[in-house]
Design a protein that fits this description.
This protein is of the alpha/beta class. The chain is globular, with a radius of gyration of 26 Å. The strands form 9 sheets. The chain has a 9-stranded mixed β-sheet. α6 (199-215) crosses α7 (232-243). The model is unreliable at 1-6, 11-32, 395-401, 403-426, 447-455 and 459-515 (pLDDT under 50). Helices cover 23% and strands 22% of the residues.
């Protein structure tokens, strides 16, 4: 066999290394403040615009997202980093002196790129437009406080009084709270950590995130706080501030460079999603390490662990498909992805099976049919949201035989191969235990028995119409084997996904007890 992971055989590696998606089951539903019971989906501007996105381009992308992707669960429209930085000669990712800050030392949208922010309005006009589209609005943040703000020594807003923060008889400023020995590893001139042991430091964070909530922000991606910039005290401090806001805000943290399950263990309950790799750009060498990383977090039971607003999700980074830019440049989308379509399919499969948040990165103004069909593929989206207990499927085994009376066997341990197998076995084979022929056209498994009836069957029979008059099969499919549910009111056969069993959602392509 060719070397695993080569450009020529990504599907072979996927089949041999990844996950077996077991029976579909939803973790839960949104309930009050529980808004991350499922992995979030959305669009982020970074892969296509770097830091140069402006108001017009963002709103254009958001409208396309609302029209095309929102029906498929993509709801967060996110402006990525340096939205407060002026685009000018000398400005760039790690430049100094080009940022807009307000009287309290907080970043403010660049008025040249985001003209609706003028007059102290901030991102509220844009957030209002995004919400009117049916979407949710997100922004990228650098952890801590900007060097420019610290050097400006501005007063700190006390949100309880609306005045400058005073403690121990003195007024505190931004120069008091910056930790100059803890600058961001990849933006040393730009940002540093805040001293959260100080009342003034915590007051600054309260004023910062209260302002974002007042603007209508629903999602914050906080960078330089995880991975190689791991700062658990600040993660907890930000999480506690967000808990006290009247507006629920999803917390995503980054970067994921050198992130491990052990590192994540201490913070998963304080966040909603967290990056577990470095930046993923459009090259197979960037995608390839995600297989091992995804496996390790799945094995550590981190997928869907308890989180800030429901569950927390290991984040494999954005999907760099379509029209893109390059990392760190002062230029918008100007080229197509370097990934082959087969590599894009493999990446989408991995992200879906690992239940990663799905954040599309390409310029939606150039979204073509192939890419749209891939990122909205109903089977993959169903796997991404509704599979449970996904695990590594480390070995695939098959062999030919002439023995009669074979039927499907459930996955069994392979002692010699240290893995699982799903295949055909004889009716007398112990590995086929639980499967039986209920008739000449049905093969059933006694799984989650209710009233002595089998709960899952593979059936060679006609699929009946649903109550809504929708046929789940056409004439070409008659006589083929289909999966059916017997006497199980809590699951539906979903014709849009292959088929699969999933929680009943009431749409036209689902039917209940169809056989």
């Amino acid at each position: 066999m060719d070397q695993l992971g080569s450009r020529a055989s990504p599907f072979l590696r996927l089949a041999l290394v990844l996950f077996l998606c077991l029976w579909c089951s939803c973790y839960g539903a949104e309930d009050g403040q529980l808004i991350t019971m499922l992995p979030p989906r959305g669009w982020n501007s970074y892969d296509s615009f770097s830091w140069t996105i402006d108001e017009a381009a963002f709103l254009h992308n958001a409208q396309i997202m609302a029209d095309k992707l929102l029906p498929h669960g993509y709801q967060y429209a996110v402006i990525d980093f340096l939205w407060y930085r002026k685009v000018a000669n000398g400005s760039g990712k790690d430049s100094y002196g080009f940022d807009s800050i307000d009287q309290w030392g907080r970043p403010f949208p660049d008025p040249e790129r985001f003209p609706s922010s003028r007059g102290g309005k901030g991102f509220k006009p844009i957030a209002d437009k995004v919400h009117a589209m049916g979407l949710k609005f997100g922004i990228h943040l650098m952890n801590g406080i900007s060097t420019q703000s610290v050097n400006a020594s501005t007063p700190i807003l006390d949100i309880s009084t609306g005045k400058a923060y005073v403690e121990d008889g003195r007024q505190w400023t931004t120069s008091d709270i910056g930790l100059t020995n803890r600058t961001c590893a990849w933006m040393t001139n730009g940002f540093m950590s805040v001293n959260t042991d100080m009342g003034a430091g915590r007051a600054f964070l309260r004023s910062l995130y209260r302002q974002y909530a007042d603007w209508g922000v629903d999602f914050v991606k906080v960078d330089c706080i995880f991975g190689t910039d791991y700062s658990p005290k600040e993660i907890v401090a930000v999480s506690e501030v967000l808990k006290k806001l009247e507006r629920p805000v999803v917390l995503s943290i980054s970067p994921g460079t050198k992130a491990t399950p052990a590192l994540a263990h201490k913070i998963t309950r304080h966040v909603d999603m967290y990056r577990i790799t470095g930046d993923d750009w459009d090259s197979w060498k960037d995608v390839l390490p995600h297989f091992d990383v995804a496996r390790s977090f799945a094995a550590a039971n981190k997928i869907g662990a308890t989180g800030l607003r429901g569950r927390s999700w290991p984040d494999l980074d954005m999907l760099p498909f379509g029209r893109l830019t390059d990392a760190g440049v002062n230029e918008g989308p100007h080229r197509s992805t370097n990934l082959t379509f087969e590599e894009q399919r493999t990446q989408m499969l991995l992200w879906s099976m690992a239940k990663s948040p799905l954040m599309y990165g390409g310029d939606l103004r150039h979204l073509n049919d192939d890419t749209f069909n891939l990122i909205t593929h109903p089977t993959l989206l169903k796997i991404n949201h509704h599979t449970k207990s996904n695990m590594e499927f480390g070995y695939i085994h098959s062999e030919r035989t002439s023995k009669p009376n074979y039927q499907l066997s459930y996955p069994v341990d392979l002692t010699n191969n240290d893995g699982m197998v799903l295949g055909l076995g004889t009716c007398n084979d112990e590995s086929a235990s639980g499967w039986h022929s209920s008739s000449k056209d049905h093969i059933c498994r006694n799984y989650e028995i209710q009233n002595n009836d089998a709960s899952f069957c593979i059936a060679k029979s006609k699929i009946l119409p649903t109550s809504g008059g929708v046929n789940l099969s056409n004439e070409e499919d008659q006589g083929k084997f289909h999966l059916a549910s017997i006497d199980n009111d809590d699951s539906c056969l979903d014709a849009s996904v292959g088929p699969m069993f999933s929680p009943c959602e009431g749409h036209a392509k689902q039917g209940r007890d169809t056989l």
